Amino acid sequence: GISLHVFFNFIETHPRIWPLQITPLTKSSTNSSMASLRFSSLILGLSLVLSLISPAYSLTCTSQKFTNNKLYDHCNDLAQLTSYLHWTYDSAKSTLSIAFVAAPAKSDGWIAWALNPTGAGMVGAQSLIAFKQSNGSMTVNTYNISSYTSIMPSKLSFDVTDMSADYSDGLMKIFATVVLPDTAMTTVAQVWQVGPSVTNGMPDKHGFQPANLNSKGTLDLLEGRTNGGTGGDSRMKKKNIHGILNAVSWGIMFPIGIIIARYMRTFQSADPVWFYLHVFCQFSGYVIGVAGWGTGLKLGSESKGVRYTGHRNLGIALFCLATVQIFALFLRPKKDHKFRFYWNIYHHGLGYSILILSIINVFKGLDILNPAQKWKSAYIVVIAGLGVIALLLEAITWIVVLRRKSSKSTKPYDGFNNGQGRQQPLAA
Fold first, then answer.
1. Most confident of 207-211, 358-362, 400-404
2. Which stretches of sequence are listed as region Disordered (predicted)?
3. Please, are residues 299 and 291 in contact by the beta-carbon 8 Å criterion?
4. Which of 2, 176, 208, 313 is deepest in the core (most CB within 10 A)?
5. Does residue 86 have a known ligand-binding role?
6. How far is it, in rounded angstroms, from Cα 141 to Cα 131?
7. Number of Cβ within a 10 Å radius of residue 65
8. 337 in a labelled binding site
9. Which range marks the domain in which residue 283 is found?
């Protein structure tokens, strides 16, 4: 808020650098209009950010429903891998009915949930693994994991009934009822995992990122709590924050700002409102983007041995280009300056380069974060929508400009020096 206030004040108090045609407005009406514009723009920006952030954190186990109408006494948001456990403990029968929900590492991957009666990790885990078969239907098999090498379907050390699996909205679900091996058990060790692929009906290796290695903990059957692996949860939240900040800034606000500058300025009634909207979108996008970029650098420093070189390099390039673009605005020549033509070429070229690299890097980030497919689809819809709007405005503004030229060409004198100063679609 303070940075934007200072930025707008600089624009208003340096008319030679920011040559806007606002002489018809009085000082009081200008201040009033600017205050109203800033407030409205701020509310619009905050609403956009909140509308995108809220869904990312609204998917908790309490909001999940099952098509088979099964209900459970407890549910827990597990600490890693965006996973959820619904469960009911029947002490009289010593059974644990569960529904494990998680997104596979890739759409054709697998998910697994296990109890480990003898340890706390993978070895000894009595696992239920679900994946898509070659015909597209879901299956769930049992695996008694005795080593870190290849696994084969095998009988567990305890009985399991009512096994089934489901897949919808990018999430796989495992349903089962486990007969606990010890009737006196009140706390059990659980392990869960997701993997990227299945080959010939056999789950392939999962990833070895911190979230994969920390996907384990305990389940307190009496208290209804899960414990363990909180470090991975913190990293996942940072990843989500990093993704949201960058998708909103580089992936949405920058394109909107470019659309505003390219098309709104063609309409004389939109001057100077279009300029302030353009500055608001680009400057706010830059501030939010820098915050997201910094979060990404922090994540990189905490993820030893994990490198996403392409995504990282594009992020650094975007930060550098956007920083040059923002600060170069303070050196913008006046419209009649001999260097203004070259400045326009630089400004447009750099702006469109940032636009293209931003969208590419958002998709790279989505592939790394691997959220539910609907989030990637939502971003595709947003970008496609902005593209359609841009195409429509491109046609409309060219029609407006050509008609304006045609109208002025019929006059013996149009008030311009050989056409200099006329509004053009790509002028800056």
1. 358-362
2. 408-428
3. no
4. 176
5. no
6. 9
7. 8
8. no
9. 2-57+234-409
